[in-house]
Every structure is written in C-alpha cells, then in structure tokens.
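We modelled the chain as a single entity of 277 amino acids. Its sequence is:
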Amino acid sequence: MLRTLWSRFAGGATVVLPDDLWEATVASLPFVARISAEDQVRLRKLTGQLLATKEMAGAAGLELSAEIQLNIAVQACLPVLNLGLDWYRGWTSIVVYPGEFLVPRSLTDDDGVVHEYTEPIAGEAWDGGPLLLSWEDTQAAGTSEGEAYSVVIHEFAHKIDLMNGDADGVPPFSAALHPGLDARRWRDTLADAYARFVAELEIIEGELPRDIDPESSAADPYYAHLPLDAYAAQDEGEFFAVSSEAFFVDPARLERAFPHWYALLAAFFRQDPRVAA
C-alpha cells in the first residue's frame, strides 16, 4: 500500500492540518461541529496523530485526497477523544473504496451444506487486519430521516470491541479510565437493551403488510419508529457498534430509548454528547 498523502506534511508523530481544510471538514460533520471549542482543539491534535500512524489506501480506482482522509480520521478520532489512540493499536491499514464493495461469505446451513456468496457492504473491521470503508457511505454521516449514521464510527467501534477477543459488544475496560465499569454490569445492561430492541423490531415486522418487502423502501416508515437501525438486531456486537453511531450522532434519541445503556456508553467513551447537542 502507498503511504498516506499526508506523509508530505508529517514531521514526526503527527501531521499539520491546514486551517481551511480542517474547518471545512468539521462544518460538514454536524455531530463534530457541535462539540466545544476546547474539545475541537484536542480532536484536531488527535486527528493529526492518527493520520501519521495509520496508512490509508484507495481501492477499486479511488484516488485518495486530503479531504477524504481527513473526513475519515476526524470521525474515527471522536470515539477515542478521551481514551487515546492506543485504543486503535495492533493494526495499521485503512482501505477506502469508492462505494459499497463485495466481500466473500461462507454459510453452513443446518444440514451441513456450505453456501458461498458475496455480500455488498459499506464497511468491515478485520480482527488484527485492515479496516475497510466505502467513501460514498462515509460522506453520508449524520442523521437522515431520524436515523443516526456513521459507518466510520461503526467500524472503529468494532475495532475497539475486538481488542479483547470476539466482537461481542463487550469492549475491554481500563482500571484507570473506567473505574466504575465492570463486565458483568455491562453484559447485563447490554443484554437487556438488546432484547428489548429485538422485541420491538419483531413487533414492527409482524405488523408489516404482506405486500411490503421488508428490504424495500416501502418498509422504511415502519422501521422509522425504531430508536436504532434495524441492523442492530443482528447480534450484541452489532448492537454495540450501531449504538456507538447513535451515541455520537443522535445522542438524545438513544438516551430516551435506553437510558441505562446510554449511561454505560458515556462512562466508557468518557463523553456525554448530549451536553453539546
């Protein structure tokens, strides 16, 4: 992979971010623009450090620009603003595609038959390997029709979750940073919020008219009543990642739906985005 375009600005462990480019990037991300001026200063410093320590490469013909790399880096640094870049240790590469990309999958059914197929996705975090993103989807970060969305935050949340094993929705805790958190309380609160979300989704799906395809846009008004994207029901690991998106992008809605779960996320990320919202 080619070294990041930012290497020409690098003078060591960080890169210099031009004022105009920084201001334009922050303005394009409302959930970043609303944080305090003091936090934006710290976020800018952290972003420069991430760009100096991670390698970004374009795929499928995408030519990386400084704008693309900065947009991704800013979103990626928001979750670790009060944790530090050490929470992204153990891997170096970020691969950016122009849009959704195909990933090979393999599924074994109940009869032991293996089905192989390809799945179009917007992002994926590999355990110990690179993080893959769609630039088209990265630009869609924010809220749309009541849905909180940031594929960058989603995939970087998976990277944090993977630090202590499987992406099961239970990230590692630091004795210094998370003195009030423990795995048992976290698992219990996560399980409760996840179960309630799945139950709500099942009610909505049960009320869908038979002539409406659940995957079609015609079903969107029904799913719009959910506090999170329906993909959060896949498993507890996805629930954590989707919740992390909502925590930073639309914190008030998440807190209303799952106040105890929100409180744990605030304790883990050591932030409360509602204060800035």
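As a brief sanity check on the tokenised model: The two ends are 39 Å apart (CA to CA). Residues 183-207 form the longest helix (25 residues).
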